[in-house]
Amino acid sequence: MRILIIEDDRQTAEFLSRGLQEAGFRICCASDGLEGLRKARTEPFDLAVVDLMLPKLDGLSVIEEIRAGKNNMPIIVLSARDSVEDKISGLEKGGDDYLSKPFSFGELLVRIQALLRRAAQMTEPTTLMVGDLELDLLTRRVTRGGEPISLQPLEFQLLEYLMRNRGRVVSKTTILEHVWDYHFDSQSNIVEAGIFRLREKIDKPFDRKMIRTVRGFGYVLE
Fold first, then answer.
1. Residue 21 and residue 108 share a domain
2. What secondary structure does DSSP assign to 70-127, as a single string?
3. Are residues 13 and 33 part of one domain?
4. Which of 24, 34, 85, 103 has its CA 20 to 30 A from that of 210?
């Protein structure tokens, strides 16, 4: 799942990014309101964390514009403003939750998970299935033929992406963009290494292999 962080304070943005990545999320950051709004309009995200005091375009305006575009992704407002009036304003403009700074990362994570559960129940199933392979997006549990499979966060994200594109060949570049968020050189072998580790866990112990390499094009889960 992808989370958009719109936060101009570099230290706070890095703290949030590191913690959410360790929790298994893919992160995209914007350091001002206009950049954040552009990303929200042009890229798919499952949730946004928006600071109110942003350069170029304030957080409330960002939220209003996101909602004006019929984008219903959950939004958590982060702000040093903690008055009742500020909280009411943030929620009225389209925020789904409001957390005052300074905040506990544990509390933020719980609120994110609650909003994602609520959104998933309203918009899509919480489980992905391909054959006897099952991935639960909420509990982060993976099984094949009823047997539990333990995956690291990036392995889980890679499998989730392949399952969402079942039967479709996805290129190495596309996988880099959606799973590793552009942070790695496209000439590296990080995708091949990730696919290898995934095969070791979901293919090697079973008779039928699910991940297939299409030479010159990419990989497909079928």
1. yes
2. T----EEEEES--SHHHHHHHHHTT-SEEEESS--HHHHHHHHHHHHHHHHHHHS-SE
3. yes
4. 24
